[in-house]
Amino acid sequence: MIVLGIxxxxxxxxxxxxxxxxxxxxxxxxxxxxxxxxxxxxxxxSREHEYxxxxxxxxxxxxxxxxxxxxxxxxxxxxxxxxxxxxxGVCFAKGLAQGLSIPIIGVNHLEAHIFANFLADPxxxxxxxxxxxSGGHTQLWYVYNIGKYKLLGExxxxxxxxxxxxxxxxxxxxYPGGPAIEKESQGGNPQAVEFPRGLLKDxxxxxxxxxxxxxxxxxxxxxxxxxxxxxxQDIAASYQAAIIDVLSLxxxxxxxxxDVDTCVIAGGVAANKNLRKTIRSMIGNRKIIxxxxxxxxxxxxxxxxxGELKLENRxxxxxxxxxxxxxxxxxx
Length: 332
Ligand code: KG4
Ligand code: ZN
Fold this sequence. Notes:
The protein is of the alpha/beta class and 332 residues long. The chain is 42% helix and 19% strand.
């Protein structure tokens, strides 16, 4: 099958073509305009998508070498995400699908993040544990099979990506915070400041990052008073280490408890090289899979890939389907 994927859940306008499980082209345009506001402005993001979608989809088709008429279906992010930005993608996809008389499928963005790991390793075997860490979600999933997922735990307050973004704002490192903190941490001492590790001693697979952010805020109040030998690099590295310690330890505990051979990580925070390195050092005989950097953050390749899998199984959406800004992955 040849499937066009479209992603507009936040501030990345993206289109990709998947052919029989392989990505032929993938284009991602990250909206830079939000940097000056220190975070995504939903109204501006929607307008940017509306402005860019034609060109990006056209480019993806051109670069793939296929013709529009050769598409077998369209996959588009249905949720979760910002209502206005989701609408731009879904309306565009519906118009194109109707014009071409081909099926359309609304895809769950979070489920697609998990499935980006099949692009990293097409031989990935079920069952596996997935640590899903994005800007809005931090969850541990036991993945039995496609469509069969058990939620083991999730954050009770801020997501890990949010902790990076808020931490970067406090440290005045810019947006998005994850890459900014990762960069600043290089050369810093991760043991310089003992930041709290939320719920680490708790047996559950839940997370909490809001205390960490508050602790950084108080720490910086004292730090900016002067007379400290610490550098911002040390503080960034220590803050990053506090997030990574909890994420990797809870992932390992889940792998032990559910006795799986394979763990995967997904979502924007999975792009963090220190997180990957820490998990690799703890994983022992198990396998750890993670997508390439550009397939960790938002992209349309994962949407096209999962959409194609579903369309092949004769699952598609009715043309009147709506966006779902709070869409969740069903657990059992
Ligand atoms: O999955 P994603 O691109 O978008 C959502 O679905 O939310 O995740 C975005 C999040 C942001 O919070 C961003 O700061 C974080 O992923 N992120 C990172 C890195 N790259 C992106 N966090 C830590 N280290 C990174 N290298
Ligand atoms: Zn995402």
